[in-house]
Every structure is written in structure tokens, then in C-alpha cells.
Design a protein that fits this description.
Elements lengths: L7 E4 L2 H9 L4 E7 L2 E7 L2 E2 L3 E6 L4 H8 L2 E14 L8 E13 L1 E3 L2 H13 L10 H5 L2 E15 L2
Antiparallel strand pairs: 1-9, 2-3, 2-6, 4-5, 5-9, 6-7, 7-9, 8-9
């Protein structure tokens, strides 16, 4: 039987899970293409209940999502490399906190809802209020992923 490292702890409180996500500027999204995984890094928006992505209207990820909209998203923050004994390679560790969410991706087609998604997206990067041109909104996909399940872990915290 495998014994779990005592330095690994589950994050169970919603405020801490949300704090980890709020510290991230990039997430990693896992897609399922038949029997093959496919993972991409994305900038994102988050409103506490859903993750928002934007992308081109064509491409491999769009083809994959049209076949299977199940996704898994990983967020990680608070990285800190340290060594318990500097001369011992196996004592080097990376402190971190991470969150994983699962959900089903939805393409938003309504123009006003796409603008709302873009505003949520931009709040992750700026406190400014933005206006979006019609061609900019029409030339992208906004993908909304309502969160079905969320879990978290922390190592050495």
C-alpha cells in the first residue's frame, strides 16, 4: 500500500480554492479526443462559477470540443523551490497549491453574452472597463465552462 506524503494536503475550503484560481494568469485545459488526451495553456476569465476562454473560430480544439465537450482544467500557484539539504538532490522540493475543475464546455453564440464573457475574461488581467468592437467579438469563440466539480491540493503549505 502506498503511503501519501504528509506534506500533501487536500484543499477543502471554497475560499482557499478560489484564492488559488485568483492568483493564476494561465490555466491548463485537458480535452479528450477519442482515446487521446490533448492539453493546452490558456488565459482565462473566472466568475466564481464558470471559467471563460476565448479562441479562434477554427482549429483542432474546436473540432475536439464539437465531438466531446468534457474538459478538465488545472490551475497552480504559490510555487517555491527549496531544499531541505542543499547538497542532496532528492531533498529539493517545489511548494505549490493547485486546483482542478471539471465541466462541459459551451460555445457562447449570443453577441451580448460573448461581450459579457470577454469582460469577465479581462477582469482577470486589468481593472479597466473595456469596450469591444463588433468584428473582434464576431471573429472569436467564447467558451464557457460551468464548474461541475472542483478539488484542490497543496504541498508544503
Amino acid at each position: 500500500m502506498h503511503i501519501r506524503d504528509k506534506s500533501i494536503k487536500d484543499i477543502t475550503l471554497q475560499p482557499e480554492l478560489l484564492e488559488v484560481i485568483s492568483k493564476c494568469k494561465v490555466c491548463h485545459v485537458g480535452f479528450v479526443d477519442g482515446d487521446k488526451p490533448y492539453v493546452l495553456a490558456f488565459n482565462f476569465g473566472f466568475d466564481g462559477e464558470s471559467v471563460y476562454l476565448h479562441c479562434a473560430k477554427e482549429g483542432y480544439k474546436i473540432d475536439v470540443l464539437n465531438k466531446n465537450n468534457q474538459v478538465c482544467i488545472e490551475f497552480d500557484a504559490d510555487h517555491d523551490l527549496f531544499a531541505r539539504h542543499e547538497e542532496v538532490a532528492c531533498s529539493w522540493r517545489m511548494r505549490y497549491r493547485s486546483v482542478i475543475v471539471w465541466g462541459k464546455a459551451e460555445f457562447i453564440s449570443d453577441y451580448n453574452k460573448k461581450v459579457d464573457g470577454l469582460k469577465i475574461f479581462m477582469k482577470n488581467y486589468s481593472d479597466l472597463n473595456f469596450e469591444f468592437s463588433t468584428p473582434s467579438v464576431n471573429n472569436i469563440h467564447i467558451i464557457k465552462i460551468p464548474i461541475d466539480k472542483m478539488t484542490g491540493r497543496k504541498f508544503e503549505y
